[in-house]
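A brief tutorial aside. Many learners find it easier to grasp structure tokens once they have seen a single protein encoded end to end. The record that follows does exactly this for Transport permease protein. Read the sequence first, then the structure, and try to relate runs of similar tokens to stretches of the chain.
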Amino acid sequence: MNRFIAFVKKEFLHIFRDYRTMLILFIMPIAQILIFGFAITTEIKDASIAILDKSKDEVTRELTQKLLSSGYFNNDAYLTSESQIEPAFNDQRVKMVVVFEPEFGRNLQKEGTANVQLVCDASDPNQARMLSQFAEGIFASYASQGVVKGIQPEVRMFYNESLEGVYMSIPGIMAMILMLVSAMMTSISITREKEYGSMEVLLISPLKPLQIIMGKVTPYVMMALINAVSILALGYFVFGVPVKGSIILLLMECLLFTILALSLGILISTVAKNQMVAMFMSMFALMLPVILLSGFIFPVENMPLPLRIISNIIPPKWFIIIVKTIMLKGGGLLYVWKETLILIGFVVLFVTLSVKKFKIRLQ
């Protein structure tokens, strides 16, 4: 029995000395609970909307205040015409526009009914549905108080009138596949060289660190692009997801994101000591953030401030915005140049860190 207890103690010491095991046993479950608990929510909080008030009377001002004081909506802008609605959506500024008809209050008083239009960005159909339902509920609650009667909300969905869920899933799936597959394959690539002992041969060769990195990345670029084209083709021909913008621009953005994912994979491989560690880092460090914090499934706007800040360093978030803008909204480079520059910045950062890691190994 004493021998068994001594053996168990040895195993405990072995576990406690391995920080990777401690990370898996204790830190990962806590991180998963916190991220899932805060990120997975169907609540609407401070969603950005715009107001197009053609009446500007006491009733419309009161209804606007009712919307904004509910805690569900945050006013981003006051529009002056319908022509400003689509640019506001393309600029990622607002998710819904509330349009009050002319002489709204007068129509309520004289005719007993008045119209308000809820124009939603349905590139995210779940969020658009929730926004319109929350707004309709606020109008209904306001009318039930006996203040007004006969408010007729009309819901209009931009970019996805039938609220097809696949319009949201195709951009997200593309980002997830390109990120996971590309990063994982490249991270395993170099760690395999380490395990086989051929990495040292590369490090002492005349090739510069940047050349080694580019040589590792290049073969996977074409394979990842084939995946991207396949996803786009399936989305268009099988599921009917439109490509309203430039297909050339879309493919160039896919190429940029592929290079980013491959560069991140190379960076992971320079840190990981073996293939198992590289695979674990790729899965844990990429899968959860891509699914939870990129806006793929759950709206980033509904998350607590710390998670919203963290989401800004999740590259797939910006790629999904780009894909939706080009595919569903027909926007050009003018509407996605900021997100494109962010992705380029990530590429430069990951490549620079990878080269630095190689230089450290050479010293």
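Self-check: The chain has two domains: 47-158, 166-362. If you spotted this yourself, you are ready for the next section.
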